[in-house]
Each structure stands twice: as C-alpha cells, then as structure tokens.
Amino acid sequence: MSTNLLTIRGIVLKETPVGEADKFITILGKDYGKVSVSVKGAKRVRNGLTAGTSLFSYSDFYIAETKKRMYLNSAEPIETFYNLRNDLSALAYGSYFLEIVNKLLFENMPSNNILLLLLKSLTAVSKNIIPNKLISSIFELKILEYNGYRPEINECINCRKPSDKNFFITFEGTVCENCLAKGCFHIPLNETLLYTIRYILTAELNRLFTFKVSTKTINSLSSFSRHLIKTQLNLNLKSINFLKEIEEFQ
Fold it and tell me: Contact at 8 Å (CB) between 210 and 131?
C-alpha cells in the first residue's frame, strides 16, 4: 500500500470520538482545505497528541496519506487558543465560528482566506480586543463575502438612488424609503451603521479587528449580519442557541 507523507498547517474544526481510544479530527488546512484525519490512541494519557489535536488547535500536522484515509503521525501546536476554554462567552463565539466554517466548506477545497479569517477572529475573541458581538458580525459579513454574497451598500437596490442615512438595510442591501417592501426584514440606517458596514466589506482583514463603535451600532449590525447568515447560508447550527443564551446576559 503506497503512502504519501504530508505536512499540513491548519486548525482543528471538529473532533469525533472513535471507540475507546481513537478519534477523527477535521482540519482546515492551508492550501489543502478541509480534511479528515484519523488519530490513533488520541485519548490515551501518554499519547502526547492532545495539545496539538484538540478543538481550536492551530498546528503543524504530520500525516501519512493512503488511498483510503489520512493518519496522523504527530502534531506540533502553534496556537491552542487556551483562553477560549476559560471564558464561557469566548467559547460560545469560538464554537460558533468553527461550526459555520465546518458546515460551509466542502472537503479538499482550498480556502486560505477563510482560514485566515477564522484565525483572526479567534485571536480577537481570545484576547478580548473588541466586543465579541462586533467580532462575530465582522466574521459573519466577511465569510458571506468569501462565499460569493455581498449586499449592495452604495445605492438603492431598486431605484439606484445613492445610499444615505435615510435608507434601510435589508438582506439584499440598502433600500430607500419609497422602495421598501412592506413586511420585509429591514433595519433603519444611520451614518455610523452605514459606514461600519462599508468599512467591514472593503477594509483589509488586518485592519478589521481594531475599530470600536457604540453598543447600539453593534446590536444593529449584529441583527443584520446574523439575519444574513440565517437566510443566505441556510445552515443548521447547533451552536447558535448556546450563543444566543450567552448574549442575553451580556
């Protein structure tokens, strides 16, 4: 049986127990996309693979690939995001990000932009750089953009009148008062919210996790981005209920 030896740098999206000692891990790897890897003896105390193969772990994975399956030889952790496990709110948001990425991506489809977005988002949450709810909205809008969906934010989607603070934002984009359909999801726009959405959709990723806006703007932005995730991706997310419970107490 021929075997290829691979080195994949990536992050663990999911762990699946197998029997009493083994597990499968789903990795989002740089240049490889999402791959499933068998980890033999992962639950044994002296295995030495726990740190590098746990949920959230960003590691270099050394893998033996056969025609049927990938087997992990060893893993060297780069970042374990340990702080996420000590903060219930951070854990809820981190788990939400992982589940979206895992359910959105297909196997073996390179997604380096999403990998970088995920790492930046987890880093921001673990270091408490800006409010978690704002980090979540940035993550949601950018992953929608990377998935081919970007709302119109410069003009009315119907009459093409240039957008201003008297507009509304719907799941398709900005709409003027005259063109707003009755009963559709919409959030009144103000100058700050419109600028924030435009900034998230146009700025480089390295600049997105540093700015601050008011709690009112964060809540409006979250309502918009969360609605887009629900309507555009149509994913059955187990983590969202836990996240909503956490947000109710914040």
Answer: no
Q: Could you list the beta-strand ranges (E) of 90-240.
A: 168-169, 174-175, 187-188
Contacts of 42 by beta carbon, 8 Å cutoff, 6+ apart: 21, 22, 23, 49, 50, 53
Confidence of residue 50 (pLDDT cuts 50, 70, 90): confident
Average pLDDT over residues 81-95: 92
Q: Output the pLDDT for position 199.
A: 95
pLDDT at residue 196, as a whole number: 95
In terms of phi and psi (left: phi > 0; alpha: psi -120 to 50; beta: otherwise), the region of 18 is beta
**Which domains occur in the chain, in start order?**
4-80 (2.40.50.140), 83-248 (1.20.1440.120)
Tell me the C-alpha distance between 38 and 17, whole Å: 10
CA 206 – CA 209 distance, rounded (Å): 7
Residue matched to tokens 């959709």: 201
Question: What is the pLDDT confidence band of residue 21, given thresholds at 50, 70 and 90?
Answer: confident
CA distances from 105 to 100, 110, 138, 235, 247 (A): 9, 9, 19, 11, 26
- CB 237, CB 136: distance < 8 Å: no
Task: Name the residue among 93, 89, 82, 103 with its Cα closest to residue 28.
Answer: 103
Helix (H, G, I), strand (E, B) or coil at 249: coil
Examine the pLDDT at 66 and tell me if it is beyond 60: yes
Is residue 44 predicted with pLDDT exceeding 90? no
